[in-house]
């Protein structure tokens, strides 16, 4: 079992902050004898859609009979969610065991003056855990950027770069081309599948050419179109009609990426179709009664959310918005759809922007935000003055979505 001291040790690594530098992580992998070399890796980077693409690919591989590990961050609720094997969360005993194994190696490195960050430790835990469980495939989601992200120590069988938009400019650069170069840093010797366009795609092609690897592009090599609300037609090497388990027109792009990855890995047509149809991803266009939850955590994602919202029927629209202060909050608020009410939320995370600040920015942009305080208070405010024909959306940070989801599942006063 895991004890509080092990979690405290892990959390203490947050003191090293965010480091976009791979030297110590590579040294740690050497100490651990490169655990990722014992299974196939699909490395998924990009700006938006990474979580959906990871789950679609994992579901396809699982349907085909493989043992599949997935590592995606951040969790909606707790650390167990980021480590899954065959869709099963890591349990307390397993997590405790792998932390104890990692702690010994990391503590020795820290004594030698090296720094292993919290995210580097989370990533190392995933790679060790998947080795111990002898998975056939591991689906690894990039945390931040790509080139210097802690996940960029693996040897990928396929590299996915979903798309590139402005995000984390303080870390990745101020232009799409600069950010695309950071994202392209995960390209190695493996085929690349991407939904990038314009100058971002030009950068991806350039880096792939330097590595002498093929690039498959959504919109060129992989064509998709919408058949109806949740059905998509995808044309790649084969032709597919796929039922999406998730709402949102933008899922067509994510499905197209997963289809091509499935083809590259040699999966059968039926497994691709059925695997994608049975994928599950909480917190992305997830409907719970009259509540709709979506972790659209940057301006590009907010815009996609607003576009998908046009297909919902409702009398009034209410938006609860919670966000991290290191995001482009002003532009995210600017792209929120028109609503009758906007309620600002302070998320229970050290990086959260407080509700007063969110409301102030919203009012400057002509959106009459109310201050909801914490998530429980904001949900009470929204629920008291709405009817079953209204749509209450909880959007912004995945941390906000996770808090709302936990409350909605536990409180009998809210629809399940």
Strand content: 15-25%
CATH H-level homologous superfamily name of the largest domain = Mur-like, catalytic domain
Query: Radius of gyration from the CA trace?
Result: 21 Å
Low-confidence sequence ranges = none
- The number of helical segments is 15
- What is the global morphology? globular
Task: Give me the count of strands.
Answer: 17
By CATH, the topology of the largest domain is: UDP-N-acetylmuramoyl-L-alanine:D-glutamate ligase
User: What is the residue-averaged pLDDT?
Assistant: 93
Q: Supply the CATH architecture of the largest domain.
A: 3-Layer(aba) Sandwich
Instruction: List the strand order in the largest sheet.
Output: 4-3-2-5-1-6-7-8
> How many structural domains can be distinguished in the coordinates?
2
Structural summary, described in words:
The chain folds into 2 domains: 4-277, Mur-like, catalytic domain (UDP-N-acetylmuramoyl-L-alanine:D-glutamate ligase, 3-Layer(aba) Sandwich), CATH 3.40.1190; 286-410, Protein-Tyrosine Phosphatase, Chain A, CATH 3.90.190.20. An 8-stranded mixed beta sheet has the order 4-3-2-5-1-6-7-8, sandwiched between helices. With 416 residues, it is α/β, with parallel strands linked by helices. α3 (50-63) crosses α9, α3 crosses α10 (269-277) and α4 (92-111) crosses α5. The chain is built from 15 helices and 17 strands.
Give the helix/strand layout.
Elements: H1 4-12, H2 23-31, E1 40-45, H3 50-63, E2 68-71, E3 83-85, E4 88-89, H4 92-111, H5 118-132, E5 137-141, E6 156-161, H6 169-172, H7 176-183, E7 192-194, H8 198-211, E8 215-217, E9 223-228, E10 231-235, E11 239-243, H9 251-264, H10 269-277, E12 286-288, E13 291-294, H11 299-309, E14 317-322, H12 329-334, E15 341-344, H13 355-364, E16 369-371, H14 375-384, E17 391-396, H15 398-410
Parallel strand pairs: 1-5, 1-6, 2-5, 6-7, 7-8, 13-17, 14-15, 14-17, 15-16
Antiparallel strand pairs: 2-3, 3-4, 9-10, 10-11, 12-13
């Amino acid at each position: 079992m895991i004890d509080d001291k092990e979690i405290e040790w892990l959390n203490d690594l947050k003191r090293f902050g965010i480091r976009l530098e791979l030297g110590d992580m590579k040294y740690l992998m050497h100490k651990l004898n490169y655990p990722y070399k014992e299974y196939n890796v699909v490395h998924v980077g990009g700006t938006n859609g990474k979580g959906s693409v990871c789950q679609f690919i994992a579901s396809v591989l699982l349907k085909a009979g493989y043992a599949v590990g997935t590592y995606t961050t951040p969790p909606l609720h707790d650390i167990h969610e980021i480590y899954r094997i065959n869709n099963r969360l890591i349990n307390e005993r397993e997590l405790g065991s792998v932390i104890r194994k990692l702690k010994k190696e990391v503590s020795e490195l820290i004594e030698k003056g090296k720094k292993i960050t919290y995210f580097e430790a989370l990533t190392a835990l995933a790679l060790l855990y998947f080795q111990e469980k002898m998975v056939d495939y591991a689906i690894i989601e990039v945390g931040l950027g790509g080139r210097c992200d802690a996940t960029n120590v693996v040897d990928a069988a396929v590299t996915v770069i979903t798309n590139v938009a402005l995000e984390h400019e303080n870390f990745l650069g101020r232009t799409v081309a600069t950010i695309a170069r950071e994202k392209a840093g995960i390209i190695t010797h493996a085929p690349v599948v991407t939904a990038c366009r314009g100058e971002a795609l030009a950068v991806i092609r350039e880096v792939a050419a330097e590595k002498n690897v093929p690039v498959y592009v959504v919109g060129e090599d992989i064509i998709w179109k919408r058949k109806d609300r949740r059905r998509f037609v995808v044309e790649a090497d084969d032709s597919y009609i796929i039922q999406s388990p998730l709402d949102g027109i933008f899922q067509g792009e994510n499905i197209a990426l997963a289809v091509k990855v499935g083809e590259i890995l040699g999966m059968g047509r039926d497994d691709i179709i059925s695997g994608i149809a049975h994928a599950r991803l909480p917190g992305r266009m997830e409907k719970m009664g009259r509540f709709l939850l979506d972790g659209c955590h940057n301006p590009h994602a907010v815009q996609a959310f607003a576009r998908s919202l046009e297909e919902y029927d409702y009398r009034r629209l209410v938006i609860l918005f919670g966000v991290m202060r290191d995001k482009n909050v002003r532009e995210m608020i600017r792209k929120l759809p028109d609503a009758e009410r906007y309620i600002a939320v302070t998320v229970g995370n050290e990086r959260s922007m407080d509700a007063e600040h969110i409301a102030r920015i919203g009012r400057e942009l002509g959106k009459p935000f109310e201050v909801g305080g914490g998530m429980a208070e904001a949900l009470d405010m929204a629920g008291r003055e709405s009817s079953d024909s209204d749509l209450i959306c909880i959007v912004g940070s995945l941390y906000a979505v996770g808090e709302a989801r936990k409350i909605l599942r536990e409180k009998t006063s809210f629809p399940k």
